[in-house]
Design brief:
The structure is a homodimer. By secondary structure, chain A is of the alpha/beta class. Chain A is built from 9 helices and 9 strands. The first copy, chain A, is globular and about 50 Å long. The two termini of chain A are 31 Å apart.
């Protein structure tokens, strides 16, 4: 697993780096961004994965969220993967904003033509952590995960199904109950086929009935979010399922905030401190 | 002067807005971004203008710098103009990254074809403040200005030549002594003609010998900045001129930081607090 460093910038006394590597899970080159806090120069530090939303690359969060300020203060490494393989040669991969490039949905595809490259669940939960521990001073025993929108869905799915890997979990405006929504049904039928029982492995509201996460899940949602208004996110459905199954969740509804990064930047400090409370003990 | 609101997002309990209006100075539509802190809902607040660098629009700083966090805390309105008129019809306006679109250099052009639209000095120092006071709760008696690179040059020039308008002044990696550099000579000869004596009205190192700014000027510069390494910025030349003329300047050289927004985001808090110390008394 060789890593190619594309760029590096000093940031809050740490380093903001962009890498490309050949992914065996996705059988394609994959990009990710990594923030090394100043503490990583002398010790191993907790690792926090951020999964981005539709159309995003590894750049959006690293440029827009302002997370490095708090990662530097708290001594947390940030790992920000791209949202899909790109330029795989799959016909139609760039035709749609909610399928293919930029829209991997963090699932392991079982259907042609996607299955040859779209193995994002395995990439995020297995290959990428292994690569981080091999190349950087990240603590394998102190990992957390969070994300936004499609990436909030990914974080909830990865976190709930891997309670031994991830100690802390949060999301901004997650797609929290994809089955039955336009976005979820389109992606799952393309990647997973028409057998809807297979979809449940990637629906946070279904999963929280079967898995227990070890700590409170923090979720922030804006009321002026067009995806929320269109009933594509459905966090209340997830929160109800949490209550029924006894999962602790801190769901915060913020008046007037939309789906974009100005919302994320407003609440990023709270999320970093949520993860630090658990990871930096 | 009618304003068209292009978009609006809630951010740190305030509002991040993007506008277009017809500029009489530039005889063209102009774009700007504006951050209204929560305090502006009930009172008039100080106004801080940020001038961006080459190729930037009003979006770069508002998305990348993380300034809203501190503007909200301190109760400061941020005004972020575009760096030039655009789509004016001037032949060749988009041909170069250091002349024309995105490269107005904050001068009033006297030469054809630019003079018909490129009146950025008048736009920034007269028309835009007037528009702000007319439409928003900004205090005309509490204004500051700062900027980055070409916009750092613009801030120094606007600040030094208008000591009654701007009370506070700072810059990130400014083009601090443009005359005699490749960037400065190209822009000034195109916009101002070959009479080099006219250029001195827009060279901060020349101006600081003639004007005194009322407070300390804060300047941050990274040592790994390619523009600095290529001798295009020359802040030390400006600092020497400040010392000779008795101008107070706080010049900070930061090891390993480059010319990009990760540097700006690292030090933005210091700049906002510098301006707040003066503007929010």
């Amino acid at each position: 697993m060789t890593l190619s460093l594309r760029s590096q910038s000093r940031c809050f006394n740490g380093s903001m780096n962009y890498y490309t590597h050949d992914s065996s899970a996705c059988n394609a080159p994959m990009n990710f961004a990594l923030y090394l806090p100043p503490q990583a120069q002398t010790q191993s530090v907790p690792v926090l994965y951020y999964l981005s939303g539709l159309t995003c690359s590894e750049e959006n969060f690293s440029i827009k969220a302002g997370a490095q300020r708090f990662a530097a203060e708290l001594g947390i490494m940030l790992v920000i993967p791209d949202t899909s393989p790109r330029r795989t040669g799959i016909v139609g991969e760039d035709d749609s904003i909610d399928l293919g490039s930029g829209a991997g949905f963090y699932v392991d595809a079982t259907q042609d033509p996607w299955k040859a490259h779209y193995q994002m669940y395995t990439y995020i939960t297995r290959e990428l952590p292994q690569l981080i521990w091999t190349h950087f001073p990240g603590r394998a025993d102190k990992q957390g995960i969070f994300g936004h929108s499609m990436g909030g869905h990914g974080a909830l799915v990865c976190g709930l199904t891997n309670p031994d890997k991830y100690l802390s979990l949060s999301a901004f405006a997650p797609i929290a109950a994809p089955i039955g929504t336009e976005l979820g049904d389109k992606a799952f039928s393309a990647y997973l086929g028409e057998n809807r029982s297979a979809w449940k492995a990637y629906d946070a509201t279904e999963l929280v009935r079967r898995y227990q996460f070890r700590d409170t899940i923090l979720i922030d949602q804006g009321t002026a979010d067009e995806y929320y208004e269109k009933q594509l996110l459905l966090p209340e459905k997830f929160v109800s399922a949490c209550k029924e199954s006894g999962q602790s969740v801190n769901f915060r509804l913020h008046r007037g905030y939309d789906h974009g990064y100005f919302m994320i930047s407003t609440f990023i400090e709270d999320h970093l401190r949520h993860h630090a409370r658990i990871l930096c003990q």
